[in-house]
Amino acid sequence: MTKTHSQTKVTENKGIARFESYCANHIPQISWRPVPNDDIGIDGEVELYDLDGKPLAEILKVQLKSTERDKGYIKSENPHNGTFIFYAEKAHVEYWQKLANDVLLVIYDNRDNKNLLYAKKIENIDLRNTGIKSVPIKFDPSDLLSGSQNDFLQRFSRLHNDANPTIRPIAEGQEILVSNLLKITFPANAIYVAPLNYDRDEIIRDSWNTDKPIGHSASNRVVARSALNQKGKNFGSDWAIHKKQLITFHNLNDETISLSTIVESPIDEFTPEEFYTLDDDYKNVFKSFLKFCVQQILYKAGYEWRPDEELFRVIAPFPVNKNKELKQTWTGDKKAERTVFKAKYYEKTTKYYCQHFAFSIDIKEFNNEWFLCINPTWTVSIDGKQKSKVAYKTVKAMKRLERNKSVYNHLRFIVYQLSYTDLFRFAYPYLSFDGLEKFETDVIIDEIEWLKSEEAEEIAVLTDLEEQTANKNENTLF
């Protein structure tokens, strides 16, 4: 059977020819280059020139849609004000907004032989509030392309748009990016390693006569703590066990230190660098050891380590009672309060569901420098103890409401908690933190133009102050 040239293809060719003619007759000239095949949401591109024919180093990608029938691409047409809506595929819009070049959506309307071209630059479309598969894009008479106006550069060029300042300019300058990496240094510059002086099996057996019995599968750390307890002693968390040796920043030669009672000579002293560069195994041990040190700091700040969730969370105040709240004061740009714990009683379950401010950490090493990687979050417990089985739902809902400023304030608050000292809380002598790492880039976000596309409520969230952030988080739990 002989193949036929479809009416759809004929209409597409008319639209391409109409736009190509517009470009060819525009002053200054515009070069139109169609995509030969296999286009994904892009039909071609245009390159812009000045009146002398010199290229402006500006190329716009073009998606061109053509119609000659009322039930085509043009929807929701208003004959009174000349507006209509084109429904773009959501996947195409996502693709357009990821491109480095600006994208121009061109509509060719040849219904009743109108032979009209409309063009709109695709900028800052919030896809969260659109449909699942399509995105409505509104056109009006100001989007018409007129061959007599020769105003393409003024309307769509980034560099030559003096007549229309609403077109997004090229952002210039430097952007400061704040990371979630907190640099760690070691003021004492000494780490002590000594062999353990007890028999593991004997400690386990002896523990059966105490109020804290342990089993044969207990970890080396649990056994070491039991050895301390059997001597009537206890110690914090800033130590580690590796190859039947105890590792700590505390000077094990000092017999007043509880840890010294479960080790024997020889006691070796290293610098941290000497220790973690022994081999990769020791580097991994050092990472784990640093986490125990951070755990020690945070416990004194009111945070507990939750192995089941692999995060630190605010310790629930005792006793937990109806509408119990805990606020912590801190100083960022100015003194402020944050609600870090909140409880609500549910009579149906006779349980308190408690929101805890929380965060996870990781230890990173780059070129012999060590960093604490911090990821703020929230968690929900029952009665301030075990994790709620539906915690993930609440946390997911809360995090959807948080924006860049909120997370940034979370990070600053955590750094404050790690470093804060007063008459009752002394500085931890073995680790210090130099502040969140910052990076400079010349690829910046134009905040003013970005915010123009947002709703008023969203702008308030994106630009919130510390007090506003805290109040929003207070209202997002139940």
What tags apply to this protein structure?
478 residues, alpha+beta, Trna Endonuclease, Chain: A, domain 1, 5-stranded mixed sheet, 12 helices, 27% helix, elongated, disordered C terminus
Give an overview of the whole structure.
The protein has 478 residues and is an alpha+beta fold. It has three domains: 7-156, Trna Endonuclease, Chain: A, domain 1 (3-Layer(aba) Sandwich), CATH 3.40.1350; 171-187 and 301-478, no CATH class; 189-290, no CATH class. Helix content is 27%, strand content 31%. The protein contains twelve helices and 20 strands. Strands 9, 14, 15, 16, 17, 18, 19 and 20 form an eight-stranded antiparallel β-sheet that branches. Strands 1-2-3-6-7 form a five-stranded mixed β-sheet. A hairpin with a 4-residue loop joins strand 14 (303-306) and strand 15 (311-314). Mean pLDDT is 85; it is low at 165-169 and 465-478.
At a glance:
The chain is α+β, with helices and mostly antiparallel strands. The chain has 12 helices and 20 strands. A hairpin with a 4-residue loop joins strand 4 and strand 5.
Poorly predicted runs are 165-169, 465-478
- Profile the largest sheet: 8 strands, antiparallel
Q: How big a fraction of the residues is strand?
A: 25-35%
Shape: elongated
Structural class based on helices, strands and sheet pairing: alpha+beta
Terminal-residue CA separation: 67 Å
**Count of β-strands:** 20
Taking Cα atoms only, what radius of gyration do you get, to the nearest Å?
32 Å
By DSSP (H or I, 4+ residues per run), the number of helices equals 12
Average pLDDT, all residues: 85
- Helix % is 25-40%
How many domains, in number, for the residues?
3
